[in-house]
Amino acid sequence: MTDMPPRQQFSDQQGSANAQAQPQAHPQAAPQSAPQRPPQAAPQAAAQPSECASQPIGVVLEIAGSGSMIALDLQRLTECADDCDPSVALAGQVGSQVKIKTADGWLLASVRDQKQDRRSEGILASIDFMGEGTEEKLTGKISGFRRGVTRYPIPGALIYPATTPDLKQIYASDGRSAIQIGTVYPTDDIRAGVYIDAMLGKHFALLGSTGTGKSTSAALILHRICQAAPKGHIVMVDPHGEYSAAFKNTGTIFDVSNLQMPYWLLNFEEHCEVILTSQGNDRQADADILAKCLLKARGKNRLAEQLGKITVDSPIPYLLSDLSTAIADEMGKLDKATNTAPFMRLKTKLEELKGDPRYQFMFSGMLVGDTMAEFISKIFRMPSDGKPISIIDVSGVPSDITSTVVAVLSRMVFDFAIWGREEKTAPILLVCEEAHRYVPCEKNADGSSVGRILSRIAKEGRKYGISLGLITQRPSDLAEGVLSQCGTIISMRLNNDRDQAFVKAAMPEGARGFLDSIPALRNRECIICGEGVAIPIRVSFDNLEESKRPASEDPSFTDLWNQSGGEEDAVLRTVQRWRAQGK
């Protein structure tokens, strides 16, 4: 079939097929049985797109399970390029949508690639099937669109441009709760919606290289979710302090000044990460001593007496002084030949934690009371009090315990969901910015507890009503399997080849044509595919109001370097804050 130019193929087939296909191919096409309507009754601008859209642009050559090979007529594509409908104007181009007539409706496909057919004057292209819809007999419109294919076309079937009215039917909400976050490319009036329950129910990931507008887009999505669910429960880990400005009116901001996370909430593994400083065999010896002494310190609390049997992981308040005393007691029981170094290491580290002002948000003597329920209510926004999102700014947390703090927060979300199953507690969305720092791939793995708990949430969280949102600019540095657990992937421009390949491996087959355009996306554009959308779409994000944007804009070097005055005072104030360590 490819020996014959596509133009000639159309003329051979249109005698039998085009008479039926033309009036049905475009929703605005006039019925053949209405000759009384004069051609000049409609404006010329409206008639032109109908004429272009109702004519085929190619034919199907080969059929496969997920896609097909088609031949496109170069002359028809040139004619369509001048159409006032942007969807028709892009017909046949990589990333555009085309439709194929089937026995009882239309099949929608996305153009993946193009190449010149050397044996003819046409173009060969690969397409990926996206879904199908039935045809309204009177209007020819697509209705009841659904993902997947039940009836394939046959070789020789005609290809038509997908029009903006077609795409409006395809992208129309099916009645499920949705948030609108932008405009479907290439149109300027079709709103892009994401189904909240589907997106959150199976986790989501927002990916994009630095400078593509990732933080602003994340803020936009979270603002839309908060508007749709003002009584929601969202916890966001913010490693750079960017999102405080974006949610100062609609969320509650926590940092080292007001987080007040009690140290006794840490389980044994997290205690080891914070207190143990040794490695190898020494670390195991120190851990054995810490486990014995920690259990003894927890056992002195009245709660422990009421519960009867407790473990070293039980979130029972204890005094740091009781832990120090227990260590000293154990050291006093030693004979002279036994090494006291492990005990001294533990005592020294405890004294450092109690005395260092940087750790006061966690290891303060004021945090010994049983405030667990109060802390959970405050962090998880229960009740939300009109502020459904809590921003946990960990930029001021000492770097050596940042991952442990994130691990505690993540584990508390998970444990709360597990132990609250009988209460049917409300679902919680946990959002991690810079996710590759906490769930690193195998080559960067450091065996930290935060990686294990986030991986477990990714695999099991949806069973317990936990949704995970991962935001990262380096998806290839994420742990293997975590990205594949995300049912919805929102990918902005990725400049690194490894990152692009990693994302393509995690996305479904039908999105290939869209994925190839990831390196060519503009700022604040993305590809969305997965459970949160009916079919993969390319979206231009809405502009976010200035007051709702995160503080993540790149500085203008030329503007700032051309300003002068007050540098000495600024340096002195900076040094003062530096020395005070945030006090």
Calculate the terminal CA-CA distance, rounded to whole Å. 77 Å
- Count of folded domains: 3
Structural class, from helix and strand content? alpha/beta
Number of strand elements: 18
CATH topology of the largest domain: Rossmann fold
The helix count comes to 20
Largest sheet: 11 strands, mixed
Task: State the low-pLDDT regions, or none.
Answer: 1-5, 13-49
Q: What radius of gyration results from the CA coordinates?
A: 30 Å
Mean pLDDT: 83
CATH superfamily of the largest domain: P-loop containing nucleotide triphosphate hydrolases
Side-by-side strand order of the widest sheet: 9-8-18-17-16-10-15-14-11-13-12
Q: Report strand %.
A: 15-25%
Query: Helical content, roughly?
Result: 25-40%
The shape, in one word, is elongated
For the record, the CATH class of the largest domain is Alpha Beta
Label the CATH architecture of the largest domain. 3-Layer(aba) Sandwich
Domain Helicase HerA central: 179-413
Protein name: AAA-like domain protein
Organism: Paraurantiacibacter namhicola
Pfam family, one: DUF87
